Amino acid sequence: MKAHTKYLVFNTPKRRDYINITAEVTRAVAESGVQEGLALVSAMHITASVFINDDEPGLHNDYELWLEKLAPHAPTNAYRHNRTGEDNADAHLKRQIMGREVVVAITKGKLDFGPWEQIFYGEFDGRRRKRVLVKIIGE
Amino acid sequence: MKAHTKYLVFNTPKRRDYINITAEVTRAVAESGVQEGLALVSAMHITASVFINDDEPGLHNDYELWLEKLAPHAPTNAYRHNRTGEDNADAHLKRQIMGREVVVAITKGKLDFGPWEQIFYGEFDGRRRKRVLVKIIGE
Amino acid sequence: MKAHTKYLVFNTPKRRDYINITAEVTRAVAESGVQEGLALVSAMHITASVFINDDEPGLHNDYELWLEKLAPHAPTNAYRHNRTGEDNADAHLKRQIMGREVVVAITKGKLDFGPWEQIFYGEFDGRRRKRVLVKIIGE
Fold it and tell me: Cys bridge to B81: A59, B57, C12, C126, which one at CB 3.0-4.6 A?
């Protein structure tokens, strides 16, 4: 069994952002030499997300409005978590909707994807250094 | 390490549907010969979902009403994604709530499930051909 | 390839609860002897969740209020599932928001975690015996 570990680093200028990381994950799969296996891609921070969906800016705008409706950032004092001095309770909620991680199959040395699957880093409390883990196992 | 890959194909007559695929996944595990390992079951299309819950039609009806409340299909022009000519923005949102994939343990050659766990394909924009990937690794 | 399987048992006195199980999973990783691999941690019951987020009681209180807003327990007769004699339809919905499982990387014999990642068992219909599965594969 082979294992390959890679960390991607992000520091988004905006509080919230959606970044396509498919190319980086594809590169990690090539580096691993794994032909058949699994790739785990996970946010290492609890106010961020890794998810698979469409690379279409209109959809990302829809996510943005929708997540703000389901878990609004303000008023920040509506959340007990923010009494700790943080203002990011909403980001902990948004991340549960969008998910922490994806697990992707590797078949014949490639990400085994449908026609529109793209991997995104979803940032909900940016403007600080954060990491994504790529862990590949297989043979 | 063994690896086994299988694709299930769906073309639901309705826009939204919930289909029990546990038997197909069970069959794939048997075909793989894997005794100890993991099975990834994932929707290859970004307006569909694979999730684990109860095989109870009343609950599926509850999911249907709940998802329509959280991410309504209409009015379709409320979503910027639909300006691309699609009318399925809501399906991209519903799929985030229900999830893209499940990872299931294989123990002693079988899906290691609790008493009520069943695997479902959740379709949110049907009436077209779509696939689900089953990837099994282990020994 | 090594495989290690462990079952954790819960019987919460309250209907809903959030329990940190990171120490139990860490112990299972040590027992497995796996240096490089993946750990699946999944709820074996369909009204419970395993998720990764912050060990901060204010945040858990926020989750509690938020989940009750998105999928309220009462009125129980608003859910068709409850016509089966159950009163836990809301728990099946809450679990979809919070997720069934997490997959965690094992690197150099340890859970490869960011600074605040902690694994939680989320119970949404407690006061009965339930299990969580930990499945570790790797080398």
Answer: A59
Per DSSP, A109 falls in state T
The residue to which tokens 């993946």 are assigned: C38
User: Which of these, B86, C104, C122, lies nearest to A54 by C-alpha position?
Assistant: B86
Contact (CB, 8 A) for B88 and B18: no
- The ipTM, to two decimals, is 0.97
Interface test with B, best of C95, C100, C106 (most B CBs within 10 A): C100
State the CB neighbour count (10 A cutoff) for residue C4.
19
Residues of chain B contacting residue C42, judged by C-beta atoms under 8 Å apart: 103-105
Residue B26's CB is within 10 A of a number of other CB atoms, namely 15
Contact B96 A51 (CB under 8 A): yes
Q: Do A58 and B40 lie within an 8 Å CB cutoff?
A: no
CB C119, CB C53: distance < 8 Å: no
Question: Per-residue pLDDT tens for B107-129?
Answer: 999 999 999 999 999 999 999 99
Query: Which has the closest alpha carbon to C14: C129, C89, C128, C126?
Result: C126
The Cα C74–Cα C90 span in angstroms is 8
* Contact status, residue A33 vs residue A138, Cβ threshold 8 Å: no
Q: Check if the beta carbon of residue A124 is closer than 8 Å to that of residue A94.
A: yes
pLDDT tens-digit readout, C60-81 = 999 999 999 999 999 999 999 9
- Of the pLDDT bands very low, low, confident and very high (cuts 50, 70, 90), residue A18 is very high
List chain A residues with CB under 8 Å of B42: 103-105
Q: Among C9, C68, C80, which would you mutate to test the B interface (most chain B Cβ atoms within 10 Å of its Cβ)? A: C80
